[in-house]
């Protein structure tokens, strides 16, 4: 069965899931050391380098952890590149949603409940985009 244009392949969906798991793992590791990172791939990447540098200056992170986080960030970047080159259609809808959330200051999570609600909403957006792509391909 040929792959239709605009429909994410199972491999692409798996790459997106892997990137989400990796960034969530980074967020969790850093929160154990008192470093809260924003939700969202691009927001996390913007903030994490500055937070790492600040924590290193304050001697709050073991050197081994910093090396490990840097290597995980390389894997996240590689996954992102693979997704970008796969023609993943959800990225446009997700980019729009992130833009709207950022515009209304809704990406700043103030409590765990808000974090879980935001993650659930973003997962819902991804599901809607995927179903829309499936319907469009028929």
Mind explaining what this structure looks like?
By secondary structure, the chain is mainly alpha-helical. It has one domain (10-71, 85-136). The chain has helices spanning 10-32, 41-57, 63-84, 90-103, 112-136. Helix 1 runs antiparallel to helix 3 and helix 4 (90-103) runs antiparallel to helix 5. The protein is globular.
Topology:
Layout (H helix, E strand, L loop, with lengths): L9 H23 L8 H17 L5 H22 L5 H14 L8 H25 L2
Outline of the structure:
With 138 residues, this protein is an all-alpha fold. The chain is built from five helices and no strands.
Poorly predicted ranges: 1-7
Main sheet specs: none
Number of domains: 1
SSE succession: HHHHH
Radius of gyration over C-alpha positions, nearest whole angstrom: 16 Å
Give me the secondary-structure category. Answer: mainly alpha
The shape, in one word, is globular
Distance between the termini: 14 Å
Number of helices: 5
Beta-strand share of residues: under 5%
Query: What is the arithmetic mean of pLDDT?
Result: 77
What helical percentage do the residues reach? over 70%
Number of strands: 0
